[in-house]
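Practice set, problem 2.
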Amino acid sequence: MFPRFLQARRFQILHRFNGFFRHNSKADFDSARAETGTLMVVDFFATWCGPCKAIAPQVVKMSSTYPSARFFKIDVDEVPEVAQELSIRAMPTFVLFKDGQEVATVVGANPTALEAAIKQHV
């Protein structure tokens, strides 16, 4: 899904690829969550997670369908403090934020539920 240069263990710059931003630090995440007026869709995933890989192409399509929403990916193994803060227990988990507040959570590779949540809050 991501080119090899985005798969590096650590990088400092927030990269955008296929409509997604990818965070590699809690500071990046906190900064993005503080933005107001935009729906933030956060995909908590792991590189070893089969369902995460299965739903990824559909989420990429959603990022094109809903350009006013900002889509983010957080690897739970690289940024565990964010996953712990939000009590992420399964992958994939999608958490939607608006104006810094959590407005919806979708657990599992369920594109229908994810799109319904996005439509409700966009």
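Problem 2, part (b): a different protein.
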Amino acid sequence: MGVQWSECDEVGVLIGLKTFINEFVAYAKLSEMMDQGILSDRSIIIATYALCGFSNLSSIGICLGGFGAMAPTRRKDLAKVALRAMIAGSCACFLTA
């Protein structure tokens, strides 16, 4: 994505938080890192774009619940593509970053 090699661990932590918890927790951690001066300006901008979007595990449940209510006969089909949709959403955010 263009993050300096020395800052990859920190940005990786942020992406992990976004994926497995949610983007709000990741942005809070990014704010802490900014206050502590851990990341360069370039890495902050890249991380900001990488964290935007709702491609995380909890969003899969929200989407399945919402779309499943609209199309109850297609729930199995929705469940099959949900993880791939989350990965595609993450990739879109990473391409923007």
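Answer key, part (b): The longest helix spans residues 75-96. The chain has one domain: 5-96.
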